[in-house]
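anyone seen this seq b4? input:
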Amino acid sequence: MLTINAFAYRLGFDRVIFLQITSHFISDFSYTSSGTELRLLITIGTFIAMNRPSLWELECFVAVAEELHFLRASKRLHISRPPLSRQILALEANLEVQLLRRNTRTVELTPPGEEFLEEARRILHHLDRASFAARRSGRAESERLRLGFICTGLGEDLIQVFRAFRDARPACQLELFDLPPPDQLRRIENGSLDGGLTAGPPAKRSSDLKFLVWKTDRWMVGLSERHPLSVKTRLSVEDLRNEGWVVPSRASAPALRQCLDELCTAAGFRPRIVVESGSTQAVLAMVAAENGIGLFIETLSRVIDRGVVFRPLDNRKAVAKRTLVWREGKCSEALLEFQKVLRNYKPG
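predicted toks r here
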């Protein structure tokens, strides 16, 4: 009969560490069959030689690390507390490092535990993505289209486009990334995006970037509800000569800043910028707080109903060109179909 001590001795392990490693998948360590003994030795030896945590150990660790409470983590995993504790002990023994400090009242991550948590989450996330991709492939849904967009441009028109594309190419997964135009262009050029939806053609672009203007929108002036100009239904650029502007940074919204410069220059003045921000949401909040006025795409004006009022400009040049940008020579069948949908777009 082979005992725990004998197994541990053969593998060169201390008995306590060996117990911690093996207790989560072996319940009885005494065997009389030499064949069974050999298979068990091979199983344990392979496990230890790999020195690799199991996915179940990662799941257990992430649950405890996020809950910082063994009982809550065990309920989340639908297991009892003792086997969960054994899983964590086995994981720490396998890694030969303490991941958690615990006593009768508290659980906290050690520095190695914090680093391991980040990587464990990433591994589980990639596993979920791999599983999703496999299921999608099994449903003949292996094609994908990766597009950048600007969240402030997401209105009924773009939703209509996405639905039309889904109807035309149901087997294609559409992945959307909320990114400012410069980040979109950078990712299009390095191949991590197939295309980008922006508020205008890029002012500075490499020669291999192509673009399609599929829609025009008006630029609207945003004012606080108590601003004196809010009583007007339409504004001229001259009305705005003495106003302070709250605007996105030039890097995050190049088309908006270019339009503002051109409109004000044509009227004989330069816009007085009082605050710059990389976030359109922050710009809206500052306009509502009466820090200044702003310029916004018409699509956004349809989804904001409090704090800020929007007024059109009586200038035909105050338009945003809604644009799809992509890299020449990197046009997949899915992207060609998306371009076709944009060309056929008609306001609903």
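Residues 33 and 203 are 77 Å apart (CA to CA). The first helix runs from residue 4 to 11. kinda curious what u guys think
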